[in-house]
Amino acid sequence: MKLLKSKIKDSTTEIMPPQKNKKLFVFLFIGGMVFAYIGLGVGGVLGIAILLGGMICIIAGIMQIIGVSECVCPDCEAKGFIFKYAKDYKCKSCGTISEIVEKDDK
Ligand SMILES: [Zn+2]
Asked: Which of 2, 14, 33, 74 is most buried, with most CB under 10 Å away?
């Protein structure tokens, strides 16, 4: 089990096991490609907006295949996501960097 350890306070939060979803990856990736293609065809501000939407779908899809864990910031309790191979976690809400520590509960 992995924990997020605050460098400021004496508090830790659990990191959920990473979720992998290949079906969702395929769905988001193809959907994103279609949106990006439409965006390029439309052009202009609307096209860029559609293209960005497509890119976000592709990134969200790639996150599904890498394996991201849901986590909670030990400082401000804001929810976030953490990549499987991350060394530390930077909270998007309060900007604090938390340490990732391994915990043996055997
Ligand atoms: Zn925070």
From this structure: 74
